[in-house]
Fold:
Amino acid sequence: MLVYDKYGLITKNYTQEDSVMDGRLTITEVAKYVGVTPRTIMRWEKGGKIKRSRRDWRGWRFYLKEDLEDIKKFYESTYEYNEGDGVVMDMAKGTLVSVILALALALPIYSYAQQANSVSEATSQKAISETRSTVDINLASLPAVQAPPASVAEAMKYTLGPDDVVEIEVRRHPEFSGQYPVNSEGKIEYKFVGDVIVAGLTKVQLQERLASILSEYIIEPDINVRITAYLSKVFYVVGEVNNPGKFYMKGNTITVREALVQAGLPAVGSSAMRKCRLVTPDSKGRSNYRYINAYALLFGGDLRQNIEMRPGDVLYVPSTIMAKLIRVISPVTNAVSSAAGSAAAGASMVAVGL
Structure:
């Protein structure tokens, strides 16, 4: 940089080293040191965020070392320069703006979180832990859900098993009538007769067997059998549905669509309906997986997805990425909303005091 005297003559070549030694820095040097552009420095000055540059007798900008430290402090922290006081003060104004923006962004997320949490709370209680490659489901912790009444066709085809309860009525012979639970061996303890194997029989087949047995004691026995509790066959619907749990089957099979209806249908907005999985255990204890597009089934009428489920099957409806994200940040949004409520209450108290 060339330096001129008052007559306009060049007195010396003023280099960068000379400016540093002299304690004076140009705006370009300050910007390079801080890591911004000179235009940014000028914008900070215009906005009153840093002290304005000094001027020499020619009107050229220059900064001293203490000015450089103030600019660096402003750049590396949340402070701004108060030109009236000449000191560095805390950017309370900027912090308040940041809080307001955070609240504005958090409110729609919070409303979505309320919807997602209505399902997520039920899901978390069912001890579902999902990783990138596996989903661990604790079936023992799932609640039993009351199933709708069985149709006539289902009741006729249903085969008895352990824990089922049957009601046997023998007309004109109440001593042979009553309710009998099926034990773990698939038998009922029938009065005056003993154990009768009923596992694998329909109620019509059980009537014929009892008629054959009682014909030794009664002439032409008139028997009616009714299943009062269907408890031997269960299936599970877990994940992002409105009513997850363990369901008792009123038939030997149930379709995926009917299973989803009994589970309250997938939760809109938080369920990945196109990526449902049907888990079927085999005789060797291994699990076979099959993907189900519940969206195509429920909204597109694709009956190819309406697969029959068998006892022990698990239908898993996964969460969307957004729902998983909401469950992670919902504690933060709750804390922010609580803090905002406290701040609003404090501001109202101050306003009343004023």
